[in-house]
Amino acid sequence: MNIAAIGEPKRISELKQVLSLGQSNVQVLENTNNILESNFDVIFDLNFDDHLDRIDAYKNLNSETILCLSAIKIQLENTIPKSLWKQTIGINALPTFLNRNSLEYCSVENINLDKLVPLGWQHFYKVESRVGMISARVICMIINEAFFTLQEGTANRQDIDKGMKLGTAYAFGPFEWCEKIGIKNVYEVLDAMGNDTKDDRYKICSLLKTEYLKA
Question: Domain holding 60: CATH number?
Answer without folding.
Answer: 3.40.50.720
